[in-house]
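User:
Care to share a sequence and C-alpha cells?

Assistant:
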Amino acid sequence: MRAKRPRWQYPLIIALALLALTVLLVPAMMRTESELRIRTNQHGLSLPDGFYVYQRLDERGIRIKSITPDGDGLVIRLDSPEQQLLAREALETILPPGYIIALSETPAPTQWVRKFARAPLNLG
C-alpha cells in the first residue's frame, strides 16, 4: 500500500520547481551583448567598410559576431566586454580622425523572443 502525501507538499513541490526554473532561465534572459557603434563626426566623411574593419580586428585576434550598418553608423557585435574594449582601442588606431567609437551594451534577445518577433501575428 502506498502512503499518501500531505496536501501541503504539492504546492511546495510546485513552488520549488518554479524557483529552480527561474534560477536557470533568468541569467540567460538577462544576458547582454557587447557592441561598438562607429559614427562620423565630420560632414562628408564616409563610414569605413565593414569588411575592412573585420579584417583589421581579426588580425589582432578580436572575435567579432557581426558588423551591420545601422542608420548613420556601423554596429559591431563582439563576444565579450573584454573584446569590446580591445576593439575600441584597436579602432582608435586603425581609423583616421573624424570617427566616434562608442561603447554600448544592449540586452540580447533570447531565442524565443527572436522567434516571436519574426512570426507574423494572425488575428481573426
